[in-house]
Design a protein that fits this description.
The complex is a heterodimer of chains A (290) and B (313).
Chain A: H1 12-24, H2 26-48, H3 80-116, H4 118-132, H5 138-147, H6 151-178, H7 181-188, H8 193-229, H9 241-248, H10 256-284
Chain B: H1 2-29, H2 34-39, H3 45-54, H4 61-72, H5 87-122, H6 127-141, H7 144-158, H8 174-207, H9 210-217, H10 222-260, H11 265-274, H12 278-306
Helix pairs in contact in B: 1-12, 5-6, 5-8, 5-10, 5-12, 6-8, 7-8, 7-10, 8-10, 9-10, 10-11, 10-12, 11-12
Classes of the chains: A mainly alpha (290), B mainly alpha (313).
Chain lengths: 290, 313
């Protein structure tokens, strides 16, 4: 019996081809480089920090960048560089968890909505429309208002906000895949709906979902930083970049370095994931490139 | 066009009803008893019960929702728990400032985005093209609130050119513009960046089309070809994007307002979250979602006006 056809991108030669195209794209390579460096920093944070991120020393308050404290110290005498390095870990945690929440919710509802159609589809799509009617950061703010401020609640809020985007993406792909011959043939040989969805359709939506998750990682870091900046996210002594900027505001005039460097860190990580995500999209589907 | 417009308007109604259900449920999803939270931790049990009856919290949920909805359509979200002023009054005194900021930010992003996008497309692969698209990528990745602080540091504290915070009273005065310049710029940069990218790619696509070649072949000046023939069609996706951004900037203004102490809804809603002033949060969230839905509706209609094919899909 012929095996149901799979898309080319999941075969080994396809992967090699994607990698070859990715390598040729300068932006994607820079993005991948930034992402890799940040990943290493996040994983090895405790070994890389010159000082304990929460060690206070009031004799060393608000030191300008200098030998020993390359990025200066904050109002508690804590080393800014050490806090930024640890903050990478916090940001990655935010990115991973909120992407995971959005991905699981969005992909599952998208699969169901696209495959079964009918009333279920109407309900799910109605719900995503309602969620998308809250502009920008406002849904996250509403969720935090209900759950209360805090880093984990921010992750939930950001994850919920991104779910509808996955739902729409997956639903669109599934609707076009549903009518393909390989799905029909798996139905003919007696596969259950669950098996068709998970074994035959899901692998075909992996590529666009991967691209979206990379870009969503960037958005999550940015949104969470915004919420932390409002004081609704990470609480002290967690070294969160957004929260660091928020607390540095009061003495911005006298000690610019405390608030400036965490912002550079946010910008670099978001840029890295955006570049890599854009490159990945072009490499996975060259037709989309303008 | 008329039937298309009617259909779109009718579709917005269930959407807004859905939004209102979510906003209504906020109050009931918070952990704990809403009446107790509103009454405060030190209230006597009798007062809590009295408040429960007064606010209708003792009635079944569907009845409560109906009451909420019938008040909400009149703009009535009850009273602020903290200030005991009407939520509608609190919102009315601050909404204009937020709208002003979002509109000016959208205008800023449109001007920067369109100009750099068009130049980048007409001079594809030139230095300007590469540089401006690089800057645009940075612009998308930059946190607006941080950019705001940096601008404030440079233009207010170091150069003493612009005031660091507050609102200078309307756009009819010079002071108003001096105060809004930095907030609008820091809020508009990320939108400017995505509008620039969209304008460039849309423009490149249109410039490749046959009718543009015809216009060139019949000897029209390049300026005329680009600005009257190509631009008109290239603008269609940009209009949609700009409309969406106006909505997003309304939401994003919440953060920018905190940076510059701009007296808009952002400051109000953030304080309300901390003091668990739920009627305020509900009112603001409902207002934002409604405004956003109306903007999207207008964008859809504008789109259909520009591109008649849309109406028949």
């Amino acid at each position: 019996m012929a095996k149901p056809e799979q898309t080319k991108s999941s075969s080994p030669t396809g992967l090699r081809e994607v990698w070859r195209r990715l390598k040729k794209n300068r932006g994607a390579v820079i993005g991948l480089g930034i992402v890799l460096v940040l990943t290493v920093i996040a994983l090895l944070a405790p070994y890389l920090t010159p000082y304990d991120y929460k060690a206070q020393n009031l004799d060393l308050r608000l030191l300008a960048p200098q030998r020993g404290h390359w990025l200066g110290t904050d109002d508690f005498g804590r080393d800014t560089l050490s806090r930024i390095i640890y903050g990478t870990r916090v940001s990655f945690q935010i990115g991973l968890i909120s992407v995971a929440i959005g991905l699981v919710l969005g992909v599952s509802t998208g699969l169901i909505s696209g495959y079964y159609g009918g009333v279920l589809d109407k309900i799910i799509m109605g719900f995503t429309d309602v969620v998308l009617a809250f502009p920008g950061i406002l849904l996250a703010i509403a969720v935090v208002a209900v759950l209360g401020p805090g880093l984990y609640n921010v992750m939930v809020a950001v994850g919920l906000r991104s779910a509808p985007t996955y739902t729409r993406l997956v639903r669109g792909s599934v609707i076009s895949l549903r009518e393909k011959e390989f799905v029909e043939s798996s139905r003919a040989v007696g596969c259950t709906n669950g098996r068709i969805l998970l074994v035959h359709i899901l692998p075909n939506v992996v590529a666009p979902v991967l691209v979206m998750s990379t870009l969503q990682f960037a958005t999550s870091i940015l949104t969470a930083a915004g919420l932390s900046f409002l004081g609704l996210g990470a609480q002290p002594p967690t070294p969160d970049w957004g929260d660091m900027i928020n607390r540095a505001r009061v003495y911005m005039r006298t000690a610019w370095w405390v608030g400036t460097f965490p912002g550079v860190a946010i910008m670099l990580s978001v840029l890295g994931f955006n570049l890599f995500g854009d490159g990945l999209r072009d490499a996975l589907d060259p037709r989309l490139k303008s | 066009m008329f039937s298309y417009a009617v259909k779109k308007v009718l579709l917005a109604i269930p959407l807004l009803l859905g939004v209102s259900v979510l906003v209504f449920m906020m109050m009931h999803l918070i952990p704990g008893d809403p009446a107790r939270i509103i009454a405060g931790p030190e209230a006597f049990p009798e007062d809590v019960e009295a408040l429960r009856v007064q606010l209708g919290l003792d009635k079944p949920l569907p009845v409560q929702y109906w009451i909420f909805l019938s008040h909400a359509v009149h703009g009535d979200f009850g009273r602020s728990i903290r200030s005991t002023r009407l939520v509608s009054a609190e919102i009315k005194s601050r909404f204009p400032a937020t709208v002003e900021l979002a509109v000016v930010a959208t205008a800023v992003s449109l001007v920067i985005g369109l100009i750099s996008g068009i130049i980048a497309a007409t001079k594809q692969n030139s230095f300007f093209d590469t540089a401006s698209m690089g800057v645009a990528l940075l612009g998308i990745s930059i946190p607006g609130f941080w950019l705001g602080l940096m601008l404030m540091l440079v233009f207010s504290y170091y150069l003493h050119l612009l005031p660091p915070s507050g609102r200078g009273g309307g756009l009819l005065t010079l002071a108003g513009w001096r105060y809004i310049a930095l907030p609008a710029l820091s809020l508009g940069v990320s939108s400017a960046a995505s509008i620039a990218r969209m304008t460039r790619s849309s423009m490149l696509e249109v410039l490749r089309q046959d009718y543009v070649r015809t216009a060139r072949a019949k000897g029209l000046a390049e300026r005329v070809v680009v600005y009257t023939h190509a631009l008109k069609n290239a603008m269609i996706p940009v209009v949609t994007l700009t409309g969406l951004h106006l909505g997003f900037l309304l939401g994003g203004a919440v953060i920018t307002e905190q940076v510059f102490a701009w007296p808009g809804l952002g400051t109000l809603v953030v304080n309300a979250i901390w003091s668990r002033d739920f009627p305020i949060v509900q009112g603001v969230v409902m207002l934002f979602a409604t405004t956003f839905t109306v903007i999207n509706l207008l964008v859809d209609l504008t789109y259909a006006l520009f591109d008649p094919r849309v109406r028949y899909e």
